[in-house]
Specification:
755 residues, alpha/beta, 5-stranded mixed β-barrel, Nucleotidyltransferase, domain 5, 5-stranded mixed beta sheet, globular, Arc Repressor Mutant, subunit A
Length: 755
């Protein structure tokens, strides 16, 4: 099989895109590097497509490797035929290859292998051949009765033969494929409570049934968890009679054969004892795999916008970690995240020292000129929010607060990373520091925490942890590299996600920085221990050096393109100082005017509607001319500079806004100065909220009260919604309408439909 050709067809890509991508991957290039700096070779494939293609490439290569191994193993048994070899080579899935290998696979001792050891295989062949239409069944079996081989009767002889036939039927790849399809299409998955004391969490599944082909992924995971916790008994009911009849119709070719009764019994036993349990396990495993893949995808989709929340730059922030008995932990960090001060206040129960807490907080706000307060959303969050909102009314300056997810903050506080960053700070205070810094730069702070603990997704602790970690790492890697990091301030936790940089190299970068006072340019990376030329190529473009030797080091322009970039700058009449001072905003105009292709605008006065229309037409014509000139001149510059057109466009885009942060385009957090209580909510009220989590059945939205509200999938849009992630993402700021408020159950139903 030509893997490149297959990938070209499956992904609907051009041949050169797939072949070049495979070559780049095999050369050891990372996906972020390929996506950002090898666009000419890949035809601008996105990091998402590249990862999917790489995953499929790995599967197909593993499939080819398994085919070769299976062919070798069967050949070693002298049982390989050209027909079987052809079937194996044609197999398009690992399941198909394993089905074909099943009859030749070395098995543990089964009833069939024991029967073969007793010499009963010839009797099984007689029954399978169906050639005897008359005769004495006892006489046929008599030669196989042998007390030394522990075959003591005619009945035992036939039973052993039937055991052999049952295994032959069970091992047939075609039969298994047919049964698998029927079970999937017509099977019913059912669940019952294990006993009367089963966990009420699974009440809806105590008497539950649904067609296998229709069951939603989140219900599969719920059933699995209920089964694991011994609350539910789950099984797949198949159309057994129909399947057995299909097997008989395919196997029994002579209805007059005197051994027909034994053959029928063998088929029934094969299905009931061997095939059905095996296929049920396969179906359950396939459903679980499908559900886990979807849950991992949802988790990744939720994680990306969470990581890509816009940083709140240039603000002094107070981190407020709420609690009851042990007090609320407070930490103040400056504009760059440096810890300035910390304390503990006790405004909540049981101490209820509200006025004392307010006084201390106001002193901190005035002392450090605090702009924002980030309140963690855990225990005592809403009580703390009300106290803060009340306190802000007493201030002379405008200070805002917002709710920040504190998921994983306690995990971070006790981690090795936190201990290295704040060795002399109490574990409890570290959580407040993390909450403050999450507001300032969510990406830089959240990468320090195992993403499974950041509070998005569903059932993540039940999923295949290897696949989840791989998917999560890919998301974090893409986010970090799309933003880029400051080489002189980034933590090792952040640096290790940069293209080509390992955990140990990340630590070496930080160590070099500490010993040498920081980097003056990107080339300084080559002095870092274990960071060679190949790693430099992979990582350099994603690392920024602000106020360094060259302004280009503070852009995403790769050092390999510096020479061409300097030629471009000189041709367009700019200087290095212009880049540093951000004066290349008119670069499109200069490209349009390159080689005098631009036109002058006619500034005549407008005295009538007719003249106004003429002016508008001319203006539209000039804009079109400018676009044409830019396109034409870019092509000319590309050839002149001997640089790819796509790369040239990327360079120009970066020169317009050096140090551009893509997160700035994302919706900002909702900042408040006052607070709502759940009791204040009434149906039909319209509020602004922040999406905190997206799951299969809808989205949870923080509207500023103690409990997040649920927008069910049926209320996400006026149009039909197949998947909630098609409509909303974590971090989105949305307008919602109150449908219902259940104070007793603490549930809020919301809608994003038009009223």
């Amino acid at each position: 099989m030509n893997i490149a050709l297959k990938l070209t067809q499956e992904f609907n890509l051009k041949k050169f895109q797939v072949e070049n991508t495979i070559k780049l991957i095999d050369e050891g290039n990372t996906i972020p590097f390929i996506a950002r700096y090898r666009k000419e070779q890949t035809g601008e494939l996105s990091d998402v497509v590249l990862r999917d293609l790489n995953e499929r490439l790995t599967y197909l290569r593993n499939l080819e490797g398994r085919k070769e191994e299976v062919i070798r193993l069967i050949d070693e048994q002298d049982k390989l035929t050209e027909e079987l070899k052809g079937e194996i080579l044609k197999g398009e899935t690992l399941q198909r290859v394993e089905d074909l290998y099943r009859p030749y696979k070395q098995k543990r001792r089964t009833r069939a292998t024991k029967a073969k050891e007793k010499g009963l295989e010839p009797l099984a062949n007689i029954i399978l051949s169906q050639e005897l239409n008359e005769g004495d069944l006892e006489k046929i079996a008599e030669p196989f009765v042998d007390e030394e081989k522990e075959v003591n009767s005619i009945k035992e002889a036939y039973q052993g033969a039937m055991d052999i036939i049952a295994e032959i039927v069970s091992d047939d790849a075609e039969f298994r494929d047919i049964i698998r399809k029927i079970t999937y299409d017509k099977g019913i998955i059912t669940s019952k409570a294990v006993d009367d004391e089963a966990n009420d969490v699974y009440e809806m599944y105590f008497e539950y049934k649904e067609p296998v082909k229709n069951i939603a992924n989140h219900r599969i995971l719920a059933l699995n968890r209920g089964e694991k916790e011994k609350a539910l008994r789950v099984k797949v009911d198949s159309p057994d009679d129909e399947i057995v009849e299909i097997l008989k119709s395919k196997i029994i070719t002579n209805k007059k054969a005197i051994t027909k009764e034994y053959l029928e019994a063998s088929i029934e036993d094969s299905y009931k004892r061997l095939i059905s349990p095996s296929i049920e396990r396969e179906i359950r495993n396939n459903l679980t795999e499908r559900a886990e893949e979807d849950a991992i995808k949802v988790f990744a989709q939720n994680l990306k916008p969470l990581l890509m929340q816009p940083p709140i730059k240039g603000k002094v922030v107070m981190g407020f970690d709420p609690a009851y008995r042990t007090g609320c932990k407070i930490a103040v960090v400056d504009e760059r995240g440096k810890l300035l001060d910390y304390t503990t206040v006790y405004p909540t129960a049981p101490q209820n020292k509200v006025e004392e807490a307010k006084k201390e907080l106001i002193n901190l706000i005035n002392k450090y000129d605090i702009d924002m307060i980030a309140i963690g959303n855990g225990t005592a969050s809403r009580e703390s929010e009300m106290i803060v909102a009340d306190m802000l009314k007493e201030l002379d300056k405008r200070v805002y607060f917002t709710i920040v997810s504190e998921a994983g903050a306690s995990v971070y506080s006790a981690s090795k990373v936190a201990n290295e960053e704040y060795p002399d700070i109490n574990v409890s205070i570290r959580g407040a520091i993390s909450i403050a810094k999450r507001l300032q730069d969510p990406l830089a702070e959240l990468v320090k925490i195992d993403p499974k603990h950041v509070g998005v997704g569903q059932y993540q602790h039940d999923l295949n942890q290897g696949k989840l970690d791989e998917s999560v790492s890919a998301v974090v890697e893409d986010c970090v590299n799309s933003v880029g990091v400051d080489l002189n301030t980034a933590s090792a936790s952040l640096l290790k996600y940069i293209s080509g940089i390992s955990n140990s190299v990340a630590k070496n970068i930080v160590k070099y920085r500490e010993e040498n006072g920081g980097f003056k340019n990107r080339k300084g990376l080559l002095k870092v221990k274990r960071l060679g030329e190949q790693t430099f190529i992979q990582c350099a473009g994603f690392l920024r050096v602000s106020d360094g030797d060259t302004p280009l080091d503070n852009t995403s322009v790769h050092p390999e393109s510096y020479e061409e970039t300097m030629k471009l700058i000189n041709k367009l009449g700019y200087t290095m100082d212009d880049i540093k001072e951000g004066k290349l905003k008119d670069i499109d105009d200069r490209v349009a005017d390159y080689r005098e292709n631009g036109n002058d605008t006619d500034n005549t006065s407008i005295n009538s509607l007719e003249e106004l229309k003429k002016f508008k037409d001319n203006f539209r014509g000039e804009k079109q001319t400018k676009r044409i000139n830019i396109s034409k001149n870019l092509e000319a510059l590309s050839k002149e500079l001997e640089i790819g057109l796509i790369t040239l466009k990327d360079i120009i885009k970066e020169l317009k806004k050096p140090g551009r942060d893509p997160r700035d385009e994302m919706p900002k957090p909702v900042f408040r100065t006052d607070v709502l209580k759940m009791e204040d909510l009434k149906p039909e009220m319209v509020l602004t909220g922040t999406v905190r989590n997206v799951v299969d059945f809808g989205a949870f939205v923080d509207i500023g009260v103690k409990q997040d509200g649920l927008v069910h999938i049926s209320h996400l849009s006026d149009k039909f919604v197949k998947k909630p992630t098609d409509i909303v993402s974590v971090g989105d700021v949305v307008s919602v309408r109150i449908l219902d408020v259940d104070l007793d159950r603490k549930r809020i139903s919301l809608s994003m439909k038009e009223a």
